[in-house]
Amino acid sequence: MKRVTLPTVIATLTIALGAPAFAGGDVTAGQKVFNKCKSCHTISNGDEVIVKGGKTGPNLYGVIGRQAGTYEGFPYYDSIIAAGQAGLVWDEEKIARWVQNPKAFLRDYLDNPKAHSAMTFRVRKGGADVAAYLASIGPQPEPEQPENPVELTN
Questions:
Q1: What pLDDT score does 140 carry?
Q2: Contact (CB, 8 A) for 53 and 80
Q3: Rounded to the nearest 5 degrees, what angle is found at the Cα of 86, between the Cα atoms of 84 and 92?
Q4: How many angstroms separate the CA atoms of 28 and 115, rounded?
Q5: How many CA atoms does the CB half-sphere of 142 hold within 13 Å?
Q6: Phi/psi at 95 (nearest 5 deg)?
Q7: Lower CB count within 10 Å: N or C terminus of the chain?
Q8: Using an 8 Å Cβ cutoff, are 151 and 9 in contact?
Q9: Contact call for residues 106 and 80 (beta carbons, < 8 A)
């Protein structure tokens, strides 16, 4: 049986956790695709404006990990609020599907053929890239702590 040392564990975790993983999307390509999105959406963290854009859509800073329909002060349609109340929390996979067809996404998620969104624009190619870009500029989630920590030897 091979003995695992503390320096080996630290090196492995540093490599594994050092760079965030994005669900198959290309961050650079997503930034380019997002140029189409900024006519309606801005990305800002308080006073720090990352992407100056329109205010027709909600601010997308921190959208990954956010419950749908909850950006404070934004007048969402009832369907997106209902989706959030039903448990929809944005992750990269859901954002990638959403931007391809928001109405179809909501109708499927809510199992309601009348569900709809104010967002009518569709990203035909590059949804995963946009999701990766949004994940790359938002706050990074804290790494999960193991439930049963392993004792390490030096």
A1: 73
A2: no
A3: 55
A4: 33
A5: 3
A6: -60, -45
A7: N
A8: no
A9: yes
Task: Indicate if the alpha-carbon torsion angle 17, 23, 28, 30 is positive or negative.
Answer: negative
CA-based angle 80:31:70, to the nearest 5? 20
Written as one letter, the residue type at 100 is Q
Residue 103 tokens, joined: 């109405």
Residue type at 89? V
Q: Which residues are within 8 A (CB) of 97 and not within 5 positions of it... i.e. 6 or more apart?
A: 105, 127
pLDDT digits (tens, 9 = 90+) for 59-111: 999 999 999 999 999 999 999 999 999 999 999 999 999 999 999 999 999 99
In this structure, what DSSP letter does residue 37 have? H
Q: Which pTM value belongs to this model? A: 0.75
Nearest to 118 by CA among 73, 65, 78: 78
Give the 3-state secondary structure of residue 72: coil
